[in-house]
Amino acid sequence: MDHKETLDSLLHEERVFRPLPQMLIEAGVNPQDLRAARELAEVDLCSYWEEAAEELDWFKKWEQVCDISDAPNYRWFSGARCNIVYNALDRHIETVNKNRLALIWEGEPGDSRQYTYYELYRAVNRFANGLKALGVGKGDRVVLYMPQLPETVIAMLACARIGAVHSMVFSGFSARLLRERVREVDPRVVVTVDGFYRNGQVIRLKEEVDRALLDDPAQNLESVVVVHRANVDVNMDSARDCWYEDLVRHERPHAPAEIMAADDPLFIMHTSGTTGKPKGLVHSHGGYMVGVHRTFKWVFDLKPTDIFWCSADPGWITGHSYLVYGPLLAGTTTVMYEGHSLYPQADRLWNIVSKYGVTIFYTSPTQIRTLMRFGHRYPEQHDLSSLRILGAVGEPFNTEAWLWMYENIGKGQCPVLDTWWQTETGMIMISPLPVSVLKPGSVTRPLPGIDADVVDAEGNPVPDGKGGLLVIKKPWPAMFSDVIGDREEVMAHYWKRIPGMFYAGDVARKDEDGYFWIQGRADDVLNISGHRIGTAEVECALTKHPQVAEAAVVGVVDKIKGQVAKAYVTLNHGFVESDDLHRELKEQVRRELGPIVIVRSIEFRDELPKTSSGKIKRTELG
Ligand code: 6R9
Predict the structure, then answer these.
(1) How far, in Å, CA of 354 to CA of 350, rounded?
(2) Cα–Cα distance list, 243 to 127, 206, 236, 259 (Å)
(3) pLDDT (tens digit, 9 = 90+) per residue, 243-291?
(4) How far apart are CA 379 and CA 371, in angstroms?
(5) pLDDT value for 2
(6) CA 212 distance to own-chain centroid
(7) What CA–CA distance (Å, rounded) separates 206 from 192?
């Protein structure tokens, strides 16, 4: 079993870390508040979320907090009108936040740009008007194939401001994947960059776009907007392509925020499942805004002086919720870094923390394990005393890495929050608050309003200490609100497997204190550096090779990345294994899916173990 090593280290962990007295005094939400919130949510879930919603601005209030009449098609804040961007920008420029830094961005070569809320508001409005000039309106889709740049944030917000739906494709994904997304999402506009810096190299993104759009995969695609970043030569198709700078130059810095229904779509985010094809999940303006705002402020105990840094790429849900929307909704300063954490050397992140006085740092266990290899020398070279809260997400946080972060980055002064959530949930679901008692390796308890449990395949609770399936039993506001593609099938996957409960796809156990320990995926999904990849996706990539007959992929433990893929392959008649073929197949996966999908090894077999119905038995491999 691939999670065994992690599991063993989790099972043997008994240390607890209590909050420092100062934290208990200063925290906005103290243990009593937390208890009261849990009690309120237990007796009246709607009142709890209604209170959270009251902290934001609405053009029209809801008729119902949560309409459960057509469960599991829950509708949050039905009847309400709002716009998430109005809450992320306009609301702040009417207050002292107007001149506060909204975004601090640092490029990999060391250049930096900063935007106050007012400056960001103006930039977003300009691009919103530019998009309108290209014919983009409410309900239209826009694909963003962009790295970590201010214009990425601007593009997300500009779309949402005019009611268009953004769909980000991670800049590390290949042209083939982009093409698939474009075909499925059918955007009116694609926004990209000429190139960007990554690990000392320029990644030429526009070239990938050109490759992806050969022979027009999208019916409604009219324009490609290209941001200048790396000053590399690109081909511009005069009928289709325009420079971002040219588009916004003459646009006015004012554009009204479109009045949206609470359940109007805000963005589409794809996530890997058990089939070869990622699912396109939709999040909407109202519920997502309430859930992300509340969890951001509570989990990170937000203060007016905070500088918040989430190191996730905006191409993933973590970047959407806690690099862009959460911090801006809360009116805090969010930090974004373009490049690689080891460039030019392994202290880059600590350099950024000290330079900008980052107070809250939210990252992934893989990132910590990567930096851990270099020991404490690098963190010691920098002043990390501004930090007060640390967090991680995306994959099981092994005890060793947790303790390393606690001791070497937080110097024993900062709580390390291990937060569990998913693309599907939109917001943090199971997580400590800075005032919680921490157990390294545990995501502690569900947040107020979240009814999570560990059950068997029939939905019966399993005894404490025993592994089972992680489920959520009651709706929550940032839950995905729609699906592109086959809605029935996707809804059945999440809600019918264990009737009446949301099936998360993770294995977990609860201990005697009600603390949750996440052990890994329950399905055929790999977690490579916190990125979800279906084994079927890797198998499809391999079988595209003309010499490959069949492929089966399993996850194997990796000390840094948590998991990597191992492939078993049978070849077509007349072909034999060779080092060249080995290399070619690895390269094939890289080309098809992008560099994040790492195939550690490939084993050639005469045949693969099968069930009587012909399905590959992956459990007998690995
Ligand atoms: C936010 C995000 C979700 C999957 C999830 C689980 C794994 C996330 C975790 C964790 C252990 C944590 N996961 N947080 N596993 N401990 N704290 O990562 O979304 O990309 O959709 O992945 O990641 O397996 O089901 P997403």
Answers:
(1) 6
(2) 12, 11, 9, 29
(3) 999 999 999 999 999 999 999 999 999 998 767 688 999 999 999 999 9
(4) 9
(5) 41
(6) 24
(7) 7
Residue type, 454: V
CA 449 to each of CA 35, 199, 417, 452: distance values in angstroms, whole numbers, following the listed order: 11, 42, 19, 9
Q: Measure the CA–CA gap between 164 and 157, rounded to whole angstroms.
A: 10
In this structure, which CATH number among 3.30.300.30, 2.60.40.10, 3.40.50.300, 3.40.50.720 belongs to the domain 524-620?
3.30.300.30
Of all helices (H) and strands (E), which one includes residue 114? strand 112-116
309: phi then psi, degrees, rounded to nearest 5: -130, 115
What is the SS3 assignment for 81? strand
- Within the chain, which residues score under 70 in pLDDT? 1-13, 274, 276, 612-615, 622
Residue 476 one-letter amino acid: W
Residue whose CB lies within 8 A of the most ligand 1 atoms, among 274, 288, 393, for a mutation test: 393
Residue 437: DSSP 8-state: P
Tokens representing 277 are: 């094809």
Using the structure block, give the residue that is written with the tokens 């917000």: 157
The type of residue at 369 is R
Atom of ligand 1 nearest to the CA of 316: 20
Question: 103 pairs with which residues across the strands?
Answer: 115, 334
List of residues 6+ apart from 49 with CB closer than 8 A: 65, 66, 76, 290, 294, 449, 476, 477
Asked if residues 338 and 149 have their Cβ atoms less than 8 Å apart, the reply is: yes
Q: Where are the domains of the chain?
A: 524-620
Ligand 1 binding pocket (C-beta < 6 A) is 271, 316-318, 393-397, 418-423, 443, 504-506, 518, 521, 527, 530, 532
- Cα of 76 from ligand 1 centre, angstroms: 24
**Number of the ligand 1 atom closest to the C-alpha atom of 321:** 1
The token pair at 417 is 């929050």
Give Cβ neighbours of residue 613 (< 8 Å, ≥ 6 apart). Answer: none
pLDDT given at position 613: 66
Residue nearest to atom 19 of ligand 1 (CA): 422
| Burial (Cβ within 10 Å: 0-12, 13-18, ≥19) of residue 38 | middle
Question: Which residue lies with its CA nearest to atom 4 of ligand 1?
Answer: 422
Pocket test for ligand 1, best of 6, 506, 509, 517 (most atoms within 8 A of CB): 506
The C-alpha atoms of residue 140 and residue 123 are separated, in whole angstroms, by: 21
List Cβ<8 Å contacts ≥24 apart for 25-32: 27/301, 27/433, 27/434, 27/435, 28/297, 28/298, 28/301, 28/302, 28/303, 29/298, 29/301, 29/433, 29/435, 30/435, 31/435, 31/436
Q: Compute how many other C-beta atoms are within 10 angstroms of the C-beta atom of residue 19.
A: 18
- Share of residues in the chain with pLDDT > 70 (%): 96
